[in-house]
Amino acid sequence: MKSIAHLSPNPEPFWSRSQLHPASPIPPRQQLSLGLIGPGRVGNALLNQLRSNQLRLIERTGVQLRLHGVASSKKMWMYETDAMQQWHPGNESHPVDLEAFVRHMRSAGTQVMLIDCTASDVVVEHYEQWMQNGIHIVTPNKLAGSGPLDRWQRIQRAGNSAHFRQEATVCAGLPVVQTLRDFIDTGDELLSIEGMFSGTLAWLCHHYDGSRSFSALLRDAHALAYTEPDPREDLSGMDVARKLIILAREAGLSMSLDDVQVQNLVPDRLGEVSTESFFSNMEELDAMMAEKLAEARAQGGILRHVGRLDSKGHGSVGLCILPPEHTFAHTSATDNVIQFDTHRYHDNPMKIQGPGAGPEVTAGGIFADLLRIASSLPRQ
């Protein structure tokens, strides 16, 4: 799991408490007890967003969000009353025990939601049982939606009385998963999806014009925190492949990672060395990338890193040469851009573009999923 990061001071909401009519408050019509697993950068950003909006949600929607537990990889904090405004990593804690944590959450209220902000497969292994016990799950953890197919199918079958949402697994806060769900739920036919799903590789392709080596740009991207701590995680293409599998399964396709053809931009030799050794030998990437750039220019096109999925279950991830007028030629910075080609949106495919990474936008995607679940629950 991600380590605990100190929470930033709670920002003052743009409204005042007097505007919420404390003398005659509207009683909440729905109470949702929350447990957060993984109070790292995204988890902390989410808590700050929940804190800032807690009173507004009661006023506008009648939904009261109550924080009853937080768990990290080593510690857990459990509360009998709402700790949304009081939780801090310096509070009294206990050694983490997920079974005890979940038992406590089930005793906290009739509607319980666990928010998994880890990248842990160990946590995902509990999803099926939690949902069988009526616990809702929201997560940016890609390992549920892109892990073993049989586990994913069990998680889906477990949700008779519990909801599962994973908008933030693909392009952070961009409404990609929800848009796809809307197509499927309303009877549209998905023909294909293609997109630039990696902000890291979008930035690299946008800036790689031959004036500087690819390895020099990669060092810049790492210094700007655009890459993972080990850039090979970005260059391998597996993160994009996981996003394609998540979308494929949301569309009803029984696909696994083995069904996606992935171009790994890391030479075999560099894939087996330590991170430090990789940084010392990144120049080995330059010849291959220079050849790709020369090929693109010879064809009058541009290089972009693209993931593709069709309705027959064929997926691919890698560099491709696109015409200069293509939509993907006009992105900026680390933007993600996704294009849906459907029966209804065929002549002019639907496009979604914007920041696809960062704790604030990722937390916003989680928050939106949380509210979608809350709005679907029966009023108390």
Q: What report would you give on this structure?
A:
With 380 residues, the chain is α/β, with parallel strands linked by helices. It folds into two domains: 17-173 and 360-376, NAD(P)-binding Rossmann-like Domain (Rossmann fold); 182-355, Dihydrodipicolinate Reductase, domain 2 (2-Layer Sandwich), CATH 3.30.360. Helices cover 38% and strands 19% of the residues. The strands form two sheets. A seven-stranded mixed beta sheet has the order 4-3-2-1-5-6-7, with helices on both faces. The protein has a six-stranded mixed beta sheet with strand order 9-11-10-8-12-13. The longest helix is centred in the first third of the chain and has 21 residues, at 41-61. The two termini are 35 Å apart. The model is unreliable at 1-24 (pLDDT under 50).
Strand order of the largest sheet: 4-3-2-1-5-6-7
Strand content bin: 15-25%
Give the terminus-to-terminus CA distance: 35 Å
Shape: globular
CATH architecture of the largest domain: 3-Layer(aba) Sandwich
CATH level-four homologous superfamily name of the largest domain: NAD(P)-binding Rossmann-like Domain
